[in-house]
Specification:
The complex is a heterodimer of chains A (498) and B (519). In chain A, a hairpin with a 3-residue loop joins strand 16 and strand 17. Chain A is globular and about 75 Å long. By secondary structure, chain A is an alpha+beta fold. Chain B is of the alpha+beta class. In chain B, strand 20 and strand 21 form a beta hairpin. Classes of the chains: A alpha+beta (498), B alpha+beta (519). The interface between A and B is large, with 43 and 40 residues.
Chain lengths: 498, 519
């Protein structure tokens, strides 16, 4: 076939299905591309939440999803970052804010100056130079404006209860003209050449297409089961093999960040929304049973938890995210560990690169190769960010000592060595996390670089000190101008502030 | 209070070997970027050893380098006989009689969030009279008009869509930087290295003995000794990776000629049966050279071809240079860092030599040893960046050769048939299929540069990114017409290059040249 693709069939469930269908349809509607969505039964439980990274907001804008409406419909909340806590109290907590640390001095990154100042006795934590972190600690939102942009980047993510979020996305997709089919089961019909020809829904209806998107989750109904594409197993890098999802009552006020508490059986993540306090417990089944995991989550979070669901965590990357005429999106292409909440980010990466490589004609071998090349790099960089959290940990307990012994990719080993040596974050292509995110993680885990960037020594020490004072003053003053999280949520819900 | 940075017990003694462009650019960068209370920098050069000095054409990054040093542009241009460079014209590269410009600027502008070339490809594929891609570059229009102006600061203006570099006399530039650098605390020693003492255990270089008998000890040695690679290649024994199967040119004959009437704000590169000829206009003369492959062209023929191509009388006898394309497996081994030709060589087809020096000097400043000890982890990062720079540049140079329609000429038949690195073959196939051009953040070259040479060499896309369909075709036609008109109208008001240089470089009192010595 050499004519351009005019029909895409997306099969799967929940947010990845609808995000894929809506994004492809919205982007390629002017090009005459029809999208049909085959919706399998939901795999979601009421406690499930999407903790999203800042980039998602841009995708929502493309889909014309209004932020206030989204938060009203899902009873979601904002998130300014993730706070990593050692529940045993032996090592200090650290925040990974979705914003920058400090402002450049003499055109050079703030961070090197902070390293230098610390060497000479500065006792101010890195996060104290982050507007986003300071706002998070004070329960305030940080709405970027001109002043804050000059200071540094201030982004935010969301905690979106998963069931209503999928509903919002489905409505957006259908509104844009995606045809939806409900299906209990799907069979894949292959063409003679081995491509996918059609999907057979519940044994009777047949949906044909030219390009198929597999958003069926880890099993990869099309890419794996039907096309036989194997996986690159990442279990040696990531120690958890079980995830328990549960929830308790909402906090009042609603915290504006996630908190991940490490205890000897794994970590328990608390993701507040207006509806509930969503909790994810990651652990390893050979070290901790499901009952013990739930007990541990309850005691480490102090939340009265209910509705626990246990799922396997089997991280790994599909050898090719795109095979033949089938593109796997989300967990069908790559399963991540739950740390840092990257699931929807991976869906978004897959979709953005798919739009960049969307077949220009019926013959697309090079575009497919490009998609596979880029997504592999991008997914491995995200995996390395997750892996760094585990291998660098200083927590107590068998789970954490196993985590320290996990495999480290050569790229991550190089990145850690460069940081330990010079305090610099080695740059890579297709990196999802900003240098400040890596710095938050490295410094948070107690890495102390042997040296800092020597070129900052051209700045006079007094100038550096004056700049530091100015920054701390600005952060303090500017955060106080911001609304509290509850005030802001009330404002967009049409309620009076409180 | 004087405090050694990074907890250093004593200043680190850095010894740079070689005083060509690489040596002095490196010395200048280190002197400007580092605190000289922590780094004691010495450069050894010998007047008995000539410098290669072929690199007379540069990339726009050189302006960033000069600005970083705080150099006054007009003065620098006056003292190095410099002219402006907006790109390179390739004549006969795609096929005999063909010509295109690789501009230091963008092609068009993104519309509806989609890169310009997709809109252009869509219009062409739909049979619209969109014209050549070259028509959508303001810098190309300036080249064609032999005109120049500084890029506009209003980023919405078409007059902001380019950058510029210089043509200059590399020998004069090295002298200029020598004066700049030696008054800023870098010690210069005249002498020739005759012996290298290495530690028996670590292999690290400990000291150099000069012909005079003087012994220069150091902690870190920067090898800017050129092709000889005195320290990295000879002393440390770091292997050479030969790329001559991919880039078979291995000789150059260089000759200056009297300034001709054409005073182009661009370099010209004209393909020949056995290689290619460069033409670089300076204020006082024109630089010319014939890069050729000794496998496919003998020296006599190369010389005749070069002399016939001159557009003014030769000012000297042609000088022969020998080289081989490739790079060292590493640029930093032990306590030796090689910069410039001592670390690798790529023919001057895209004026990359000086950029590669600049990138290495900047990386070295960032990764300079601290704490007195040589840290192999810093070397590993330096080497990773070095590989990225060389390998990506190599792919870009190879593209000029790989996609050619000069059938029946043995050199060109060879480079067309040679097995390409997968990284390059994939880029070409992807562009043909979808008009997507390489776009990476580390190293040379930018997407627009790839686009210029891909299309210039006759690699044309069969498809385009379908997100471009958001713009209705009649609107697209109007936008393309408007863009072309904006380019033509604006370019027509630019100042002729010759006039611009005359006014810019002589307008300032010559006495101002003393400012180079100011602190």
């Amino acid at each position: 076939m050499t004519t351009p693709i005019s029909k895409v069939v997306v099969v799967g469930r929940d947010a990845p299905l609808w995000l894929a269908a809506a994004t492809i349809r919205r982007a390629l509607k002017p090009s005459g591309v029809m999208v049909e969505a085959v919706e399998l039964p939901s795999a979601l439980a009421p406690s499930d939440v999407h903790a999203t990274l800042p980039a998602l907001e841009a995708l929502h804008n493309q889909l014309r999803i209004d932020e206030a409406a989204l938060l009203r419909a899902t009873r979601g909340a904002f998130s300014l970052g993730q706070n990593f806590v050692d529940a045993t109290g032996r090592t200090p907590a650290f925040l990974h804010p979705y914003g920058a640390f400090g402002t450049a001095i003499d055109g050079k990154d703030f961070f090197a100056y902070w390293l230098k100042a610390r060497r000479y006795g500065l006792g101010v934590a890195l996060e104290d130079f982050s507007l986003t972190a300071a706002a998070a600690r004070q329960g305030r939102l940080l709405i970027p404006d001109d002043e804050s942009e000059i200071y540094g980047r201030s982004d935010y993510g969301y905690h979106l209860p998963a069931i209503p979020y999928a509903g919002v996305l489905k409505a957006a997709a259908v509104h844009d003209g995606v045809t939806a089919h409900l299906a209990r089961s799907v069979d894949v019909a292959l063409a003679e050449n081995g491509d996918i020809a059609a999907l057979q829904i519940d044994g009777d209806r047949r949906v044909e297409g030219e390009l198929f998107i597999d958003a069926t989750g880890p099993e990869g109904l099309l890419i794996g089961a039907a096309l036989g594409v194997g996986r690159d197993d990442w279990r040696a890098h990531l120690p958890a093999d079980r995830i328990l999802t549960t929830s308790g009552p909402a906090f009042a006020p609603v915290p504006v960040y996630a908190e991940l508490r490490a205890w000897d059986g794994g970590w328990a993540g608390v993701y507040p929304s207006q509806a509930r306090s969503h909790v994810v417990q990651a652990y390893n089944s050979t070290l901790c049973g499901d009952e013990d995991a739930l007990r541990g989550a309850v005691s480490t979070t102090g939340i009265n938890l209910a509705d626990a669901v246990v799922r396997a965590s089997d991280p790994g990357r599909r050898e090719s995210a795109w095979s033949r005429n089938c593109v796997a999106i989300g967990a069908a292409s790559c399963v991540f560990d739950p740390i840092h909440s990257v699931d929807l980010h991976a869906v978004q990466l897959g979709l953005i690169h798919l739009l960049g490589c969307f077949p220009a004609s019926g013959s697309f071998a090079a575009q497919r190769a490009e998609y596979n090349r880029i997504t592999r790099l991008a997914f491995e960089r995200v995996r390395d960010f997750q892996s760094a959290y585990y291998v660098l940990n200083r927590y107590g307990g068998t789970f954490w000592s196993h985590a320290r012994d996990a495999d480290v990719s050569p790229a991550l080993a190089h990145g850690i060595a460069t940081f330990r040596s010079r305090g610099e974050v080695a740059p890579w292509e297709e990196e999802s996390f900003a240098p400040d995110s890596w710095r938050a993680l490295f410094i948070g885990h107690g890495l102390a670089p042997d040296s800092y960037l020597p070129i900052i020594d051209r700045t006079a020490p007094d100038e550096m000190k004056a700049q530091f004072r100015r920054m701390l003053g600005f952060v303090k003053e500017h955060v106080l101008k911001q609304p509290t999280h509850d005030e802001y949520l009330g404002r967009i819900s049409g309620r009076a502030g409180g | 209070m004087l405090m050694q940075a990074n907890g250093m017990a004593a200043p680190l003694k850095v010894v740079i070997v070689g005083g060509g462009t690489a040596g002095w650019m490196c010395a200048a960068a280190l002197a400007r970027l580092l605190a000289l209370t922590d780094y004691d920098i010495t450069l050894i050069e010998s007047d008995e050893i000539g410098t290669v000095g072929v690199g007379e054409a540069t990339l726009p990054h050189i302006k960033t380098f000069n600005d970083m040093l705080g150099i006054d542009e007009a003065q620098f241009m006056r003292e190095t006989q410099a002219t402006f460079k907006l790109g390179i014209e390739f004549v006969g590269w795609d096929r005999p009689g063909g010509r295109y410009i690789h501009p230091f600027g963008t092609f068009g502008e993104p519309w509806a969030g989609v890169d310009f070339q997709h809109h252009w490809a869509r219009a062409v594929q739909a049979g619209q009279d969109a014209g050549p891609l070259q028509d959508y570059s303001y810098a190309v229009a300036a080249c064609r008009a032999e005109a120049f102006e500084f890029p506009n600061e209003d980023l919405k203006s078409i007059r902001s869509t380019y950058a510029y570099a210089y043509h200059f006399d590399a020998g004069l530039y090295a002298n200029f930087l020598r004066r700049w650098t030696t008054v800023r605390g870098v010690k210069r020693i005249e002498g020739q290295v005759v012996d290298v003492a290495q530690n028996a255990g670590t292999g690290h270089v400990e000291a150099l003995t000069l012909k005079s008998g003087a012994v220069i000890a150091g902690d870190l040695f920067v090898d800017c000794s050129g092709f000889r690679s005195l320290l990295l290649g000879h002393a440390m024994g770091v292997a050479w990776q030969d790329w001559s199967e991919w880039l078979p040119c291995d000789r150059a004959l260089a000759v200056p000629s009297a300034r001709a009437s054409a005073f182009t704000p661009y370099t010209r590169s004209t393909a020949q049966a056995g290689g290619w000829i460069w033409r670089i206009p300076l204020q006082h003369r024109t630089g010319n050279g014939h890069v050729f492959s000794s496998r496919f062209c003998d020296e006599e023929l190369a010389r005749d071809t070069l002399m016939q191509a001159l557009d003014g009388p030769a000012l000297a006898e042609p000088r022969l240079l020998r080289f081989q394309a490739g790079r060292r497996a590493k640029a930093w081994e032990g306590n030796v860092v090689a910069i410039g030709l001592a670390s690798g060589f790529l023919e001057p087809l895209e004026s990359t030599s000086i950029f590669l020096i600049q990138a290495a000097a900047t990386d070295l400043a960032n990764l300079m040893p601290a704490n007195g000890a040589i840290d192999p982890r810093l070397a590993a990062e330096f080497n990773r960046l070095f590989e990225i720079h060389y390998d990506r540049t190599r792919d870009f140079l190879m593209l000029h050769y790989a996609a050619n329609a000069r059938h029946g000429e043995p050199l060109w038949d060879h480079v067309r048939a040679v097995q390409l690195p997968d990284s390059l073959a994939h880029k070409i196939a992807l562009f043909e299929e979808s008009a997507a051009a390489p776009d990476y953040k580390l190293g040379l070259f930018s997407r627009d540069s790839w686009l210029a040479v891909l299309v210039g060499q006759g690699v044309l896309p069969r498809g385009y990114n379908r997100l471009a369909d958001r713009i209705p075709m009649p609107d697209l036609e109007a936008k393309l017409r408007d863009l072309k008109a904006r380019i033509v109208t604006n370019a027509a008001t630019m100042t002729p290059h010759e006039e611009f240089i005359a006014s810019y470089c002589s307008g300032v009192a010559a006495a101002a040249s003393d400012t180079v010595y100011a602190a």
